[in-house]
Design goal:
four-stranded antiparallel sheet, 24% strand
Amino acid sequence: MGLMDKLRAELIDIIEWTDSTSDTMIWRFPRFQAEIKNGAQLTVRESQVAVLVNEGQFADIYQPGRYELTTSNMPILTTIKGWKYGFNSPFKVDVYFVNTKQFLNQRWGTANPIMMRDPEFGPIRIRAFGTYAFRIDAKDPTKFITNVAGTSGEFTTDGVTDQLRNFVVTKFTDHLAESKIAALDMAANLNEFSGALTPGLKADFEEYGIQLTTFLVENISLPEAVEQALDRRTSMGVIGNMGAYTQMQFADSLKAGAENPGGSDNPAGAAMGMGMGFAMAGQMTQQMINPQNQQFQGAQASAGAVPPPLPQQAMYHIAVNGVQQGPYGIAQLQQMAQSGQLTPTTLVWTAGMAGWEAARSVTALSALFGAVPPPPPPPPPAP
């Protein structure tokens, strides 16, 4: 026997596990020449359990503490080995350290959308995700070793989380279909979903020797198209009068187009935009005045004095760059004449006219151009 072998024979084995990882669930102690000496020191730290396995058969289980492996504290293994009167020789046995801490922040989610029938939207697809935490049952770690880890020398959470995630998604889908909660009310029931699913999931986890400590449903999301439709519906509810909002948006866009420096290269287009903006403003003003007129007429009718209806104002169409615009009232056409959009040669038409005519030849419009100042005289010639 060499010197190193003699030293090893005289030293007492120290059996312990210092876990430097965050996901290791089971670790098997590597024995020198597959033998453990009589009187070996076993150290089991907090959040650990040590399990002795003899030729595939579970023996003694040790909770956190420090132990000297002798026949006095290995009763099951002593019975299996037949050590009736003690022993002095080394023995072969596997020592498994089981990590009993909580494994936190385990993610779960629906790989595919879940089909459900919503009372408001009809058939829709939804997705959900959340987190859960679990630990190995410290009172009976042999169930986990038997059903999950097997003879693996090192087993991590990656080997079991896929199966646990399947449990979660299956239970969630079934509960969601039975709850019949409307899609718009799901966000307000996340705690209820979590609490209702936990008991059933605990039973599934316990079959593998795992304790479910926390389960949370963090989010239930609708398809993107449904979310966009909800956003539009919310916007319409906030806006209120959609017709007035549309007119305001149109008038703002015309104003922005007229103020755009790039539009200065096209005076006719800018003038037409200004004219359309004035027309839109006139229509909005008319809509605001009409309710007041109706109230006034109603008051007169109740007093017995109802005036005759006002004469109908003539409305004219104009042709700008070959494009028909209008109809416009006299007040709007006067503003367009002042801005240069309406000229004496601009073709106009209104009800009762046989065809298009120049604006200056129409009696009702010829007066609009009298207020337009003549062009400035040319500058004097240079001396």
